[in-house]
Design goal:
A hairpin with a 2-residue loop joins strand 14 and strand 15. Helix 5 (about 90-100) runs antiparallel to helix 6 (about 110-120) and helix 8 runs antiparallel to helix 9. By secondary structure, the chain is an alpha/beta fold. About 55% of the residues lie in helices and about 10% in strands. The longest helix has 20 residues, at about 280-300. The protein folds into three domains: about 5-265, Serine Threonine Protein Phosphatase 5, Tetratricopeptide repeat; about 270-380 and about 575-635, Rossmann fold (3-Layer(aba) Sandwich), CATH 3.40.50.2300; about 380-565, Response regulator (Rossmann fold). The strands form three sheets. The protein has a seven-stranded mixed beta sheet with strand order 7-6-8-9-10-14-15, sandwiched between helices. It contains 27 helices and 15 strands. It is elongated.
């Protein structure tokens, strides 16, 4: 911000008379000397801010007495008046005239400083920086050096470089007198507030003046606290208190340390877990419970690990109950929270408010946007679509796709995501049709997809190209496993009628059907009935179900889907987990059990690290997690708390599923 004319005038006056009479004190020359009475008259007018009359008097003095000792002083005052009136270019001209005409005058250095102020006042910051550097090389007066360094600090603040500003403010503080230091300290503190912690640490390493360093160290402690890097904040603030016991901010530093201490009170080896043990989602809660219980048993059994404790709370599939459970866990000083599966929003909001890291197990939209303590470890639609499309486009080389989707939220979400991802990777969407999810006959949307729904005009029939896309084979599988290779269902009564019908136009390599295994199991045989063969069938993790194979039978062979867990994986750690789970609970684990197990293991390992002593540190370390090798694949968290998981790619082969694609 530029100084006002009145404030700027005071600055000029203080500079002009720093080594001579103080502002407001008239120069009263010996009346016997010619012209001195005229100069005294000009001075009196200047003091009363009668600037135009003062200008006339000073100019008259210069015209009549150009060689008198006070001539240079008259030019300084004329320049000051133009600065006060905002005519910066004219002021510069006056100062340059003084330098050229009176090079030996004691006012020359003052004039050079005022020229710098004129450029600053016009916002010509580059000129200030360039000229000030040259000026400081030859400056010897403490006053000139201090004022120029402060001006450089102001200039760098104006161009948005607080670190350079802080350097010059600190340098000026070292040479400043007591009366000047208060203003400089205020400027130093303001610049320090705009510095990040790394910049302050850089400055402290080169800081010579201990008092100025104290302000920066206190600000560094504030920064670290605001960043929730409490361990670092404690170290800095403790050092500040020890080194600057008389500093004006010492009490604030002590109070901040006490606040941080209260935030760090929690049981490092206690984890909370929110699951629905009653209500409509009770089944899923019990499955997740088994995953967490197995993780705790497995972790404790490993030698050298601390004795951990998990406090389970029932969310009862209810939002208010989930929020209350978080409050209870906070009072029980848990380090972090696993879950919930549902009612995640209210629980996440309460955890964020309490500063407790929470890893939710939910597909709830935008759950991690609720705060930086909120994480998610679950498979979401975007994750599935990216994995699926990447494989079929980049590995299989497919480029044209059709979509059949239920006209409801789940289907619309996957349809839009699939469409966008195909286009992103350079593929084409050649057909999209919706259907009523409550129906069992899907002939109409299928016919629309392949151009059989409407009667084709006679004049266009010859232009339609018939034929089927050549079958594609998976390199991972035996040559006998083809994409949707089954023959269509036909009977003798329908065959003659079908021979007379137009053939389907299949201009897509694959069809994506984001629906349940029950509905997909009805659609897939009907695709074959309408001669849609030689195309890949693509689905979501819902397709990873024996029910789909039972419903669609041979027509589902070769279908591809993603999932977050595959119990039959060849990976040793997955086989070990699956065997241990079956031995413990007498049943095979699925994704819910596996992701709960992985989430618990991630937290168990982190809270056991000796360098993690604050919940804020735990949160930051979760954000840094990269490629954690769990039973649900590799998991990483980004800075928003969202998990990135390398999902499993599965394909139906005979009466089961096989893992395909590079992992």
């Amino acid at each position: 911000m530029k100084p006002s004319a009145g404030i700027f005038l005071l600055i000029i006056l203080s500079l002009l008379w720093a080594c001579g009479p103080k502002p407001g004190v008239l120069i009263v020359p010996d009346k016997a000397v010619p012209g001195d009475e005229l100069f005294s008259t000009a001075e009196a007018m200047f003091q009363t801010k009668s600037y135009q009359k003062a200008l006339d008097a000073y100019n008259e003095y210069l015209n009549r007495f150009p060689d008198r000792p006070l001539a240079a002083g008259a030019l300084m005052k004329i320049g000051a008046i133009h600065l006060a009136l905002g005519d910066y270019a004219k002021a510069r001209g006056i100062y340059q005239q003084l330098i050229a005409k009176y090079p030996e005058s004691s006012f020359v250095r003052d004039a050079e400083v005022e020229i710098l102020f004129s450029f600053y006042s016009e916002g010509k910051y580059v000129e200030v920086i360039e000229r000030a550097a040259d000026f400081l090389k030859n400056a010897v007066s403490r006053v000139h050096i201090v004022r120029t360094q402060v001006l450089l600090g102001d200039t760098y603040m104006a161009i948005g470089s607080p670190i350079d500003a802080a350097i010059y403010y600190a340098q000026s503080y070292e040479k400043a007198h007591d009366l000047e230091k208060e203003t400089i300290v205020a400027k130093l503190e303001e610049s320090a507030k705009q510095l990040d912690s790394a910049d302050i640490e850089f400055l402290l390493r080169r800081m010579e003046d201990k008092v100025a360093a104290g302000y920066l160290m206190y600000q560094l402690g504030l920064n670290r606290s605001e960043e929730e890097a409490y361990e670092e904040a404690v170290k800095v603030l403790a050092a500040f208190i020890a080194n600057f016991p008389q500093h004006e901010n010492i009490q604030q530093a002590k109070e901040l340390l006490e606040t941080i201490s209260k935030k760090s009170v929690y049981s490092r080896y206690t984890i909370g877990c929110l699951l629905p043990f009653s209500g409509r989602y009770q089944t899923y809660g019990n499955r997740a419970f088994k995953g967490v219980e197995l993780a705790l048993k497995q972790f404790i059994s490993q030698g050298g690990n601390p004795a951990l404790k998990v406090i389970f709370k029932n969310t009862a599939s209810d939002s208010d109950t989930a929020a209350m459970a978080v409050k209870e866990l906070y009072k029980e000083n848990v380090a972090a929270i696993i879950g919930p599966l549902v009612t995640a929003e209210t629980a996440a909001l309460e955890a964020q408010k309490s500063g407790i890291p929470i890893i939710t197990l939910t597909q709830k939209d935008d759950i991690t946007k609720l705060g930086d303590y909120v994480f998610r470890n679950f498979i979401i639609p975007e994750m599935q679509v990216k994995t699926l499309v990447s494989f079929v486009v980049e590995t299989l080389g497919l480029d044209s796709f059709a979509v059949l989707y239920p006209d409801e939220n789940y289907g619309k979400t996957f349809m839009n995501l699939f469409w966008d991802e195909v286009l992103t990777l350079g593929g084409r969407i050649v057909g999209v049709e919706s259907y009523n999810p409550s129906h069992t006959d899907f002939a109409d949307p299928i016919k629309k997809l392949v151009g059989l729904y409407y009667e084709v005009p006679e004049g266009l029939k010859d232009e339609i190209k018939f034929g089927l896309i050549e079958d594609y084979l998976f390199p991972d599988l035996e040559p006998s496993i083809e994409a949707n290779a089954a023959e269509p269902i036909e009977n003798a009564e329908l065959k003659d009628e079908k021979d007379e019908e137009p053939q389907p136009v299949i201009d897509f390599d694959a069809v994506f059907i984001p629906d349940s295994p029950a509905t997909a199991g009805l659609i897939i045989p009907q695709l074959a009935f309408h001669d849609i063969r030689g195309t890949y069938l693509l689905g979501t993790n819902l397709w990873h179900s024996d029910d789909l194979i039972k419903s669609a039978r041979q027509y589902a062979q070769g279908a591809i889907m993603t999932d977050g867990f595959f119990a039959q994986s060849d990976a040793p750690h997955v086989r070990e987990f699956t065997a241990l789970f079956e031995k413990t609970f007498g049943e095979k684990p699925d994704f819910i059990e596996a992701v709960a197990y992985d989430t618990a293991m991630i937290l168990f390992e982190m809270v056991s690290r000796p360098d993690i002593r604050y919940r804020s540190t735990l949160k930051q370390e979760l954000m840094k997690l990269k490629n954690y090798q769990g039973v649900t694949g590799q998991t990483s968290f980004d800075n928003s708390g969202e998990a990135f998981k390398k999902l499993y790619l599965l394909q139906i082969k005979r009466d089961g599923f096989v893992e395909i694609g590079a992992r």
